[in-house]
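Worked problem 6 (solution included).
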Amino acid sequence: MKEFMAQFSMCGYGFDCMTSTNDLIRRMILAHQNSDRGAFNAVVQELVSEAKKKNHHLYARDIERILLNGLAAEGEFHEIPKRAYPYMDAPLDQERGLQLLEVREPRRQLGELVLSPDTREPLDRLLDECKHSDLLASHGIRSCRRILFFGPPGCGKTVAAECIAAELYMPFVVVRFDGIVSSYLGETASNLRRVFEFLRTTPCVALFDEFDAIGKKRTDSEEHGELKRTVNSFLQILDSFVSESIIIAATNHESLLDTAIWRRFDEVIQFLPPSLSEREIILRHLLRHTKLATSAIARAAKGMGGFSHADVERTAIDALKFSILSHDAKFSSKRLFDALARQKKRLESVSGTIRNRSSLKRTSTSKKQVRSKPRK
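Solution. The predicted structure is:
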């Protein structure tokens, strides 16, 4: 029981924001002092039930996991119960039956991310506000609930959203635009309303990834009227939306967003490719078991100029896989630099493909414009 209490006290769950747990905490301490395992477990289960009533399902599951790990250490084995989220009524597209969102259990922690101070500081501030939302509310101030992430692909936007959910012990919901966007007139806006109604009644961290799919400029002459109506609908819904859910929109193409979109968010956070020192930190972490020389890691990081976080991670994992599958007795710097060369070649290939597609699109648009000119 002492081991459990020590482990439990280290987790920092912030009981100050759960006023109804005061009596439970008192009873838990008394049970611990009296070495009454049965009473102690009963109080913990009450605490778990209280958390579930507040829709803090990840928080409740984590308490159960800590408790069961403590029991296992004392010779009692119990299987950790499977996650149970109340998502049977998750919204669907009415015409096609497609899911409008996907629920994921967040597994990454914010401490794992290597971010610049300009990105880390607003994230930490956001989390601090959310953890003390009751205190802010007592002064008539609402914590940040609508955040926009922007920056190049692979620089941590999606992972950061997942980490926020994990830090706040809230379910992580990813909105699926393949389900939301419909060819039927007015159905896209209806799907958006279904999603927001779900978010209103089910507190969670909701990620609108690739947000430019529905947030494009309404002045874009190439976009049809249905998409412009969707932008209008989104703005209207967001303006009137009140919930404990946290809305995070992420885009790789911030220049495409409608100007009115930016004003609807409480916080805007930019994600940039990692600096040289940040690339070294990522590599040292991923290759920490290889005993690779610091100088080799520094040289590799220097050769990764322009790489995203995902590119650096992919390179390191690629090198590890080659070394393992080749049954190397010792991981060598050659494996890392070979993987670096492969990643550079891959990025050049992808970049060339994108350029070719852009060129074809411009040519196609030009031909359409020529054909659409009226005859004199």
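Discussion: The first helix runs from residue 2 to 9.
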